[in-house]
Amino acid sequence: MNIEFPDKMQFLFDAARYKILYGGRGGAKSWGIARALLVLGAMDPLRVLCAREIQKSIQESVHQLLKDQIDALGLNEFYEVLQTEIRGRNGTLFIFAGLKHNVDNIKSKEGIDIAWVEEAANVSKTSWDKLIPTIRKPGSEIWVSFNPELDSDETYKRFVLSPPTGAKVEKLNWSDNPWFPEVLQQEMEDLKQRDHDAYLTVWEGHCKQVLDGAIYANEIRAATEQGRIGRVPYVPGVPVHTFWDLGRADKTSIWFIQVVGFEFRVVDYYENRGYALDHYLGILQGRGYVYGEDHLPHDAQNEQLGAKRTIEQQMRDIGRKVSIVPKIGVADGINAARTVFGRCWFDEEKTADGLTCLRRYRYDVDPDTQQYSKNPLHDEASHGADAFRYFAVAMEEPKTAKKKKAALVRAGGWMGA
């Protein structure tokens, strides 16, 4: 096959454990990688895992992109495109999976030659830590493609700021694409004139300082500048309180926090999806902390379908100390979180995924006005941010109770115990 590739993509045909392509829109990163994998798969039998952080259906994968490139390369006689996989006549196999809640299943897939992680900007630390040792066949490779967003994102830190030894890393922008279409050229020029900062991010692959509409942008910036994101060791003997956002179909998220003097030591974080309560209780037990109270949202008092007891009751029955977080409005909860943020110290390693949620938690866009609404966007960042909000509300509650008591005393209505 005589197939042309941009000069900066030639390294895809050289041996390397990690091959990283990042940059702005229009660089043909995904297009080039798809072509390269199909060519390599036609030359030798390969098992290729095509992954992304979240994949709820095959439509969210690169399945269609590969199908289109098979047509463009005239490889229809060689590749059979099935509903959930693509097979080559020589035994090459393309499979597709989401990482966030499926890495344990990926571990069962033996003999992966190449793992391609597409749209990798938001892949979490946990996903990378689980995926990389799974791709362990001798000579296996991990290919990564993404448009950068924040320089604090795990993928950018891991593969661009501090790439692994021997990694081949290329920044690929529209200017490196000899087939850059004219219609995109006009879109690029229009954005460059209208919003130069946005142009640098979208088309030149520059990182943003903060995400548009980020709710805790100022608080995260202050915590970073003041050195409150780093190593925060667990203090033995000081109880660890947990703060939960509950979900089954959605994520369950848990923050682990110690109160030391006037500081909140955020020492750990965990999230997952699709597991019953026993799984999360096992995680708590495995951490080995001395625990204080488990702070649960009000829906922990709801009866579960098929269960005779609520989440609260189940946890109390095994001896956990449970407190239900008062139900207040989201806006008031966000204000409470902003209030306590300045007293929080975050362990950068153990709370990395939680910090990602806080960095990416942002306001939704009103579909009619295209302006930011007063409501947060419900996405993958919401659950960790909601659990943090419950932490803030729980910490504010004792203060509120003291104010009410003082007011009753002043009014002569407090009789004491």
Automatic annotation (TrEMBL):
Phage terminase large subunit N-terminal domain span: 17-206
Ranges annotated as spanning the membrane: none
Gene3D superfamilies: 3.30.420.280, P-loop containing nucleotide triphosphate hydrolases (3.40.50.300)
Domain of life, per lineage: Bacteria
Pfam name, any one: Terminase_3
Descriptive protein name: Phage terminase large subunit N-terminal domain-containing protein
Organism listed in the record: Agaricicola taiwanensis
